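This part of the workshop introduces the protein records we will be handling. The question running through the whole workshop is how a given chain folds. To make this concrete, we reproduce a full record directly below:
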Amino acid sequence: MGRSLSRRDVLRFGLVGAGVASLAACGATPTPQVIEKVVTSVVEKEVTKIVEGTPQVVKETVVVQQTVEKVVEVTPTAAPVLGAGEHPFHPRGRSRRA
């Protein structure tokens, strides 16, 4: 019942684990989201019109309706690159030897 793992088995499991981790890091590309919004605005302006020889100021109200469509793509950001002597889990970012 007590079969011990050989060095070859340990290396095989390590390589399989590294392969799975590298494939998981690639991940699926996120699908872009399409955001659609209807914008309605009321515009009021004064227009001078000439009616029978006399200029008259007329106020016109126009309702403008516009559909705005925007495609949003999410881009992943890379992890920060650590310099020499920096450790990711140390509170000050340095290894204990430095």
Notes: The first helix runs from residue 7 to 26. The chain has a mean pLDDT of 77. The chain is about 20% helix and 40% strand. The radius of gyration is 34 Å.
